[in-house]
Amino acid sequence: MKLEVRGIEEGKPVPEKYAFGVFSEEDHMSFGPNRNPEMVWDDAPAGTKSFVVIVFDPDVPSVADDVNQEGKTVPADLERVDFFHWLLVDIPATTHRIPEGEDSDGVIPKGKNPGPGPIGIRGVNNYTQFLAGNPDMAGTYGGYDGPCPPWNDSIIHHYHYEVHALDVETLNLDGEFDGPAVREAMAGHVLASARVTGTYTLNPDLR
């Protein structure tokens, strides 16, 4: 199976228009355009009955104590965990394209609703947990919300844009399901997968 994420080249920086946070000299970070990129895929195997889209960052600090703190740096050797930025399930087998901006166009404080969206069914991304302590932003973040790694992280983050062809029409997920729930439901049903990986950083020393 082939996947093209238009505007994102393999191994190259993700353009700011797809980011939740962009670099700011005054405040380290300001909100970005936060548009989902266009994704186009083909050559799905025979027997494909639905698709799943997953976007995640495997480089997120497992401990947030030093994240975005003045005078501190997130060390490179800190254990890292997956942070899910986009979960779409039950995408019809006849769909092979998600237009740019279809699922997200701008940062929406308190998030977008999970559940049925423009294409497929939206899961809940990890901004739901990350922003839970911010009274202006706390909420349930469904659908796509783009890169915004810690501005004081000592490593560049990688963003995996994936599409998976499944042998079932539905994963029978509803409510506020998350990344691990999607992976568990997909297990044993994946016929083929494709991935494009971009990078992103808000650390001025790494840009």
Key features of this structure:
6% helix, 34% strand, mainly beta, single chain
Please summarize what this structure is:
InterPro entries: PEBP (IPR008914), PEBP-like_sf (IPR036610), YbhB_YbcL/LppC-like (IPR005247). The chain is mainly β. Helix content is 6%, strand content 34%.
- Uncertain segments are none
Number of helices: 2
CATH superfamily membership: PEBP-like
**CATH fold-level topology:** Phosphatidylethanolamine-binding Protein
Helix and strand succession? Answer: EEEEEEEEEHEHE
Return the structural class: mainly beta
Distance between the termini: 32 Å
The count of strands amounts to 11
CATH architecture descriptor name: Alpha-Beta Complex
Q: What's the shape?
A: globular
Q: Look at the structure and give the mean pLDDT.
A: 97
Biggest sheet record: 6 strands, antiparallel
Number of domains: 1
Biased composition (Low complexity): 106-119
Region (Disordered): 98-119
InterPro entries: PEBP, PEBP-like_sf, YbhB_YbcL/LppC-like
Protein name: YbhB/YbcL family Raf kinase inhibitor-like protein
Question: Please, could you describe this protein's structure?
Answer:
- The chain is globular, with a radius of gyration of 17 Å.
- The longest helix is centred in the C-terminal third of the chain and has 8 residues.
- With 207 residues, the protein is mainly β.
- Helix content is 6%, strand content 34%.
- It has a single domain, classed as Phosphatidylethanolamine-binding Protein (Alpha-Beta Complex), CATH 3.90.280.10.
- It has a six-stranded antiparallel beta sheet with strand order 8-9-6-5-10-11, covered by helices on one side. The protein has a three-stranded antiparallel beta sheet with strand order 1-4-7, with no helix packed on it. A two-stranded antiparallel sheet has the order 2-3.
- β8 and β9 form a beta hairpin.
